[in-house]
Amino acid sequence: MKFIRFIRKHEKPESGVLLNDGSIEIIRGDLLGKYETTGETCTLDDITQYFPPVAPPNIFALGLNYREHAIETNAEIPKAPLIFIKATTSLTAHQSIICLPKSAPQEVDYEAELVIVIGKKAKNIRAEEAAESIFGYTCGNDVTARDCQKRIDKQWARAKSFDTFAPTGPVIETELDPGNLKIRSILNGQVMQDSTTADLIFSVPEIVSYFSQNFTLLPGTLIFTGTPPGVGMARTPPCFLQPGDTIEIEVEGIGRLENTVQAE
């Protein structure tokens, strides 16, 4: 099932199930708990604003989790997941704006990612138990200010957490095998990243288990699973986001996350 959060004109935020015919069946209640269908429907054309699929208590992420991305950045293959955290205030939605921050606008990069949505509280679970704690998956863009990450701060907190640096959506897909999904980023119509999740160093079950051994994973937690090769900083010459750009993230079985770029 594909779950979606949105607003219609002059109405409050709503949740629904995106059906195969493109219509949306409205639901009421807690998406990660108890909810019921209402029988009411609308269409994608009725949507005036998208919301991130969930309001996460935490946003966790992995660096260097695709073999070919580690190679393109001349990094060693990590022996354990490389963890960082993105601020929840960096969250934004499908068809929203990515703002190039005034303090670091020059080297803002895109990163296509499969994002795990935790549905059940998890602590110290094994990899083979991970599926019980996963609600579903969505598309994500781990936007990064490379100058902050690589030269100015030389760590990742600010670089990854500017406002609008965590676009997610547009839907959560609950019926998906994450083991070998096509994943792409498309910048102004040009494919920049084109890979599959089969290149992940640490699989989705391993990721969830490892995170749960270090943090309590609460319902709604988002976990960005890493990005494949083709990021802007690794290109010759480098290719960073500019005002007016459109960046799209595609994950097979989920859909396409689209955002435009503007200066703050």
Molecular structure report:
The protein is 11% helix and 40% strand. The chain has four helices and 19 strands. The chain has helices at residues 67-72, 146-152, 157-161, 204-214, and strands at residues 2-8, 14-18, 23-29, 35-43, 47-50, 59-63, 82-86, 91-92, 97-100, 108-109, 112-118, 134-141, 144-145, 166-173, 182-187, 190-196, 222-224, 246-251, 255-263. The protein has two domains: 2-50, SH3 type barrels, CATH 2.30.30; 59-263, Fumarylacetoacetase-like, C-terminal domain (Fumarylacetoacetate hydrolase, domain 2, Alpha-Beta Complex). The radius of gyration is 18 Å and the shape is globular. A hairpin with a 5-residue loop joins strand 3 and strand 4. It is mainly beta and 264 residues long.
Helix and strand content put the structural class at mainly beta
Shape, principal axes of CA atoms: globular
Query: From N to C, what is the helix and strand string?
Result: EEEEEEHEEEEEEEHHEEEHEEE
CATH class of the largest domain: Alpha Beta
Q: How many helices does DSSP assign?
A: 4
As a percent range, the share of strand residues is 35-45%
Rg estimate, integer Å: 18 Å
Note the main sheet: 12 strands, mixed
Q: The CATH topology of the largest domain, please? A: Fumarylacetoacetate hydrolase, domain 2
Could you give the distance between the termini? 36 Å
User: Can you give the mean pLDDT?
Assistant: 96
CATH architectural type of the largest domain: Alpha-Beta Complex
Helix coverage percent: 10-25%
Structurally, the number of domains stands at 2
Q: Strand tally, please?
A: 19
CATH superfamily of the largest domain: Fumarylacetoacetase-like, C-terminal domain
Low-confidence stretches: none
